[in-house]
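Shipment paperwork, digital attachment
Item: protein structure file
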Amino acid sequence: MKIRPLHDRVVVRRMEEETTTPGGIVLPGNAQEKPQQGEVIAVGEGRYVDGQLRPLSVKTGDKVVFGSFAGNTVKVDGEELLIMTENEIFGVLEG
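Attachment content:
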């Protein structure tokens, strides 16, 4: 199943975080914070501003940074994804 976001929304897959601290302590699943970085897997067509369609600044494949409580979590084919607006994305990781 594929998901196509509407308007200025993007679908993001969270990046996996390390499960071991630098000191070698393994963190259980419930003690870990959810990562605030992810990969954009789908983008909407954009938002209408003054009657003109303004495309989004992010594209599929971009690595992005977002806030702790950004977006809404949905399950698609057993995988947890985030759907958020472009405004909830702080920046694109480059390099």
